[in-house]
Each structure stands twice: as structure tokens, then as C-alpha cells.
Protein 1
Amino acid sequence: MTQKLYLGSGSPRRVELLRQMNIPFEQRVLDVDEVYSQDLKGAAITDFLAKLKGEAQQKILLPNEFVLTADTIVWHNGMALGKPKNEHDAMQMLSSLSGRTHEVISSVCLSGIDSQKCTNDTTKVSMRKLTTEEIEHYVHTYKPLDKAGAYGIQEWIGLVGVAKIEGSYTNVVGLPTHKTFELLSTTQII
């Protein structure tokens, strides 16, 4: 029986990374209320949300179908920075990251009709001190409201503002490709 893989994410960056990995898939996005307990910290948050997104998809999977779901947060000062609510929120987030090191945590979950396997990765990102003008330019020009921590490392801010990363670059983009490949390989999806 041929296995079929869905990507349960609306992220164009995750779509592009899977395509670059030559993994055949179809995109199928379901709306999920991304609410988690405030008791969760770091990777426990992204693990929970990636599993939650997978559970929503499990109800409509067939026996030979699997869905890959993911979640990414920026972890800074003991807090999760998700997607900003508006431009002001985005500028506040970037100001707090400016001149400091934070962690980007992504979890990936592979769900079948009655199984889930998850993995996660953490990358340390150091930003140089950004000026108010640079932050305003980035937020107004690139509209990073759909990105955890209010920035995309693959965009202008990553080119001019990120001084150093320790760990996987693709994890910061939103899909740790090496861990995703291992997950799909060990479950014989690819």
C-alpha cells in the first residue's frame, strides 16, 4: 500500500523546505485553536501544539495516510514569543531581541490514524543591536506578523541583524529539515 503524506501547515517556508528535500506531499491545513497551558515551557509548548495540530488531522486520515505538523516559537527571557498581534507588538518583540541571544524552538509531529511521533530542535540566535529605524523599516516593509518572534531569518532582518546562530538554520526558518528527514525515514514514509 502506498503511503501518502500531507503537510498540515500553511507556512510557505515549510512548503518550500519540503519541496527542496524532494519529499512528495500535499498541503492540507485545518484551523486549530493554538492554546496551551501556561505551565508549559520551551519545547514542551511546541511539542504540545504540533501534536494538537496532528490530532485535528487524525480524524480525517485514511490508514495509509500521514500528516506532518509543526510549530515554532522564539524562547526569550523565560517566555514564548509567538506571532505578533500587530505592528506595535512586532516592534516590541524585536526591540527585546536586539543585542541579545534567544532560542528558536521548532517541533515536528508525524501523525497516522492511531499514532504520533514527534521531535524538536533548538537553535540559538544572537542579534546585533538594532536601531529603532531598522526595526521600524523591517516591520513596515516586511510585515512579519505571521512569524514567531516577529522576524524571518531568511529576510532582510536576518541578513543585517543576525550576528550568529548555533544550530540548524532551517529550524529557525520553521522546519528542522534534518530532524524531519529522520522522522520520515524511521517511520518509512520516504
Protein 2
Amino acid sequence: MSLERQIEFVLRDRVDGVEITPATIGLARFNEFNRQVETFIAGAAKLKVDDVQVRVVEGSYKIIGALPVATMDALEPDLRTLQRQDSLGEIDPKRADVIAKWQARSKGNPELRYQIKPVGVNIDTVELSMSTDYRIGEIVPWVKVEKYLFGTVMDMGGVNKANVHIRLEDTGQVVLIGSNQGYLKEHSNDRLYHKVLARVEAEQHYRTRELRNLRLLSFEDYAPVYDEAALDRFAEAGRKAWADVPDAAAWIHQLRGGAL
């Protein structure tokens, strides 16, 4: 595997007049920053980070990541977009969330700066400090939508906040959908561990299609049935219609002019 592309994540600050370094950083801040770096690299696409090799070096608190070329290629468009400070609505939502948190933290501390430095590519350092102003521009990344979700109810209820956990049929992902206790009590009907069609309202990211803040509007009637006898009749009719065609696939191929 090629690990030729490097990127630096730098945290600069002073605590009680002492510069933060690998030797002086507190455990909570160490864990927080490292997790945020991991989130930034992985993004909403959850890029594999096990292949990212890191080392911590002097220069305030600095992480140097050696990334597979494919991982860095996935990061580059967002790093280029971040050359504009009105770009938070246009980049990966997980990365935008990290940038927004660093921006908010730096606003109250003139000593605090965060930097993202791509190495070996023509992209300037992205810096968050008291003087920067990263924000959402004209593109609003999250839009309100109504969706139908099909899957299996894994859990439902809640003492303080009622919600439903549904494992989606198409992706296997378990999503958390907010609801209210009254509706669930009235419409539960032994739905636990059964397949349901749920109508929800949510916010959807325009680029990644990720959903957030899901809320249950209703369970829809879902009872897939088919007439087996009718299906058999259609199949038999098809067999008779194609009886004089020795190779149906070859015939269709010929009709298409040899194109697949």
C-alpha cells in the first residue's frame, strides 16, 4: 500500500502561560483533538482510518498523518473548498462539524489556533483562529424532507424521549427516529421485530444524502401480497410466447444491434 501523502493537524495554545506540547497537553484535550482529527479524515463516508499512520511531534501539539493516496484524494476537494471561509455548507458534514467546533472554541481565546496543512500538494494551510470566520454561505446544506423508510423495528419506546430504532432493509443501518409516547402507545400493534414502512420528516444533506433529526409521522400500512396462481399463469403465457425462440438472450442481443 502506498502511504505517500501526508497531512498535518496542529493545535496551538497556552495554558497558564505554558505552550501545549505532546508533553504538556491534558488527557481530555488530547483525546478530544485526536477524535476530531479522526472524524475529519473519515468524514460522513467513514473512510477507513486503520490504514492512516500517525506520529505526534513537537511544534505545539502536532499530528502528522501518512494517508493512503485514495484517502487523501477523497479529502482534497474539501480542503480546496475550505480555502473560502463561506464554505461550511459545501463540504462533508462531519468535516464541517469539526471545523465549526474549532472555530467556536478559538473565538474566545486569542492564543488558540487549529491548522490543517496538506503536504506535497498545492493547497494552502487551513487555519482556525480568533480572526477567521468560517461559516455557511449561499448553499444551505441541510434541507427538510419527508421520506418513507422500510425496515425492521429493533426497539421502540423510551422513558423520557420516545423513539423508534429501525434497521433499514436496503443498507442495514439502524436509524433513530424520534416520536411521542402517545402515538407509539396507540399504534404499536406488536411492531417490535417486524417489518414496517415508516413515514418520517427529517433533514437531508444535499450532497451526501445523510439524514438527521428524524421524526416519525406515521406507520403506513404495508402488506405485500401477490397472487401466486396469477403469477404462474403469466409465466406460462411467457413460456408459450417464447417457445419458438431457441435462445431468448441471443435474440434480444441481436435486436439491440449487438450492444449489451
